[in-house]
Amino acid sequence: MSHPEFPLTDELIYLNHAAVAPWPKRTGAEVIRFAEQNCRYGSHYYPQWLEKETQIREQFRHLLNAASADDIALVKNTSEALSFVAYGLDWQTGDNIVSSNEEFPSNRLPWQSLAERGVEFREADLHAAATPEDALFALVDQRTKLLTISSIQFASGLRLDLNRLGAFCKQRGILFCVDAIQSLGAVQFDVLACQADFVMADGHKWLFGPEGLGVFYTTPTARERLHLTQYGWHMMKDTHNYENRPWEMHPTARRFEAGSPNMLCIHALSASLSLLLETGMDKVEALIVERSDYLKAAIDADPALELLSERHPPLKSGIVTFRHRRRDNHAVYRHLQHSGVVCALRGGGIRFSPHFYNNLEQLDRALAIAAATP
Fold first, then answer.
1. Which of 117, 124, 286, 318 is deepest in the core (most CB within 10 A)?
2. Which stretch of DSSP H or E encloses residue 96?
3. Are residues 222 and 200 in contact, defined by beta-carbon separation less than 8 angstroms?
4. pLDDT surpassing 90 at residue 243
C-alpha cells in the first residue's frame, strides 16, 4: 500500500533517498501555489513569505534540537557551509584537521584546499581501531584545530557516535564539525547532546526537499570565530534599512546569508519538513531502521547477494550496501535502473536507501530483481 504523501508511479521502487529524494505531495502542491501566487500578485505577499522564512528556521531548530533559531542559517548547500568554516577560521602553519578516508568530497575538498596555508588534512581509516571513533582519536595531537566528520557515511551507512566525538573534542578545545546530510530527516539529531560547533546539511536527501537550500548551524561562540567570506544586504543587522551607513553584521547566524533568500525553495522545503515533524522523527527513524534491518536479513538469506554494510552496528542508519556474488556491480545497477529500482552505485556495490514510507514488499521486489541480474 502506497503512502498518500508519495504518489510515485507504480513503475518505480524508490530507494535512493541518500542521493536525491522525491517530493511529498504537499511539497508539490506548495510549489504550485507559490508559483500561481507569483504569477497573479508578484511580490505583493512578501510579508507572508518572510513569515515562512521564520517558520522554516524554527522547523530546523526542532529537527536539530538547537537552543535557538538564531543559530540557524539558510544556505545554498552543504558545500557552501563547509567552505564558510574552512575559510572563516584563523589557521596557522602546522595546524591539522582530523577526518576519515570515507568522506563525500564536500567534506574533503574544502579542508584539502587549505594545504597551501600549511594546514594538514588527516584521514583516518575508520576500521583500523576498535571503534571508528578510536580511529579518529588516534590522529589527534596538540596541533589539531578541528575534527570534521559525516554523521553517517554516504557509501557504507556507517553511523558515528557523535556524542562521544563531541565530548572528546570539548575536553581538548577542538572544534567539532558535522556533515549531517545523511542524518537529518532519517534519524534523530541533537546538536546540544553532541556538542557540535558546526552542523550542515542539504534539504534534497532524507528531508524530501528541492536542491538549492540547506541548513548551517553554529553555536554563538563558534560563529564568532568565523571571519565572513561573503557580504551582502541580507547579512546586515538592520536588514531592511537599505541606507544603513555604517552597517553592522547580523548578530545571529543570518550573518552567513549574504543575499536574497531562495523563497521558492523555502516554501517547498518547509512543506517537506512539516511532514517529518508531524510524523515525528522518533517514528521516522524507527521505520527506517526497521527497513534497513529487513534488507540486511534478506540479503544474508539470498545466496546470490553479499552484504557490504556492517551487519549489526551499534548505531543504525538507512543506508544498506551490497553486491551480487556473480555479477558485475555495473551490470546489476543497470539492470535495477532498467527495471525501475532507483538506487545508487556506491561503496563497491549497490546502495539502497529506503525511507519511512517504503513498504517491505517493495524491498523484496527490489532484492529479487538484483539477484536475478542476467
1. 318
2. strand 96-100
3. no
4. no
